[in-house]
Amino acid sequence: MRSPVLSLLLAALPSVAFAGNIPVQGTLFSGGTWDSSNTYTLTGDVTVPSGQTLTIGAGTQITAATTDGMASGTNTSKVELIVQGTLVVNGTTASPVIFNCANSTAGCWVGIELSNSGSTINGATISAASTGLSASAGVSLTHSTVTGDSTGVSISGGTATLSYDSIYANVNGIAGSGGTLNVDHSLITGNTSYGVSLSGSTGLLS
User: Fold this and answer.
1) pLDDT digits (tens, 9 = 90+) for 127-167
2) Rounded to whole angstroms, how far apart are CA atoms 60 and 202?
3) Does the global pTM surpass 0.85?
4) In a 10 Å sphere around its CB, with 0-12 CB exposed, 13-18 middle and 19+ buried, how is residue 154 labelled?
């Protein structure tokens, strides 16, 4: 029998009539919209399946648990946000969308993993992940901050456009192992191992 919590989660929370913290894990079969009237705790891996979209509004706070309640994904002990469909993050400079972990140390959760092109992340802060943003398909990351991660951004395929971002105080800043990486008007500083490493990626830094 499906647990009551998981049943709620799999409904993708398209509309919520109350404010509070919502635990989320499993597959969002109908996509969904999250907004700042609630906070969201990823208690296990969350998957946005192919053909579905998760939209996150300005000021929304998402916190990953320190253990993976689903015991699934590429890392069965840490939480992943797995995007096989589309992720649309509509944060602003004044009201960013926060992706963090219950323990704010680097590697507390896996991070955001994108395997389908078309996701747009604007006005986000991504921290405490093994890799803040990992993309094997096209993605746009703009006006965002990636900090306190083991690796800030990793690109292995598609075309990634990073504009007006701050990628700082990670162990590794940006790693490119494939695809095309275009970075403009971005601050990449204070990453302890390297700022940008391209091995198999092409692109332009301006």
Assistant:
1) 999 999 999 999 999 999 999 999 999 999 999 999 999 99
2) 34
3) yes
4) buried
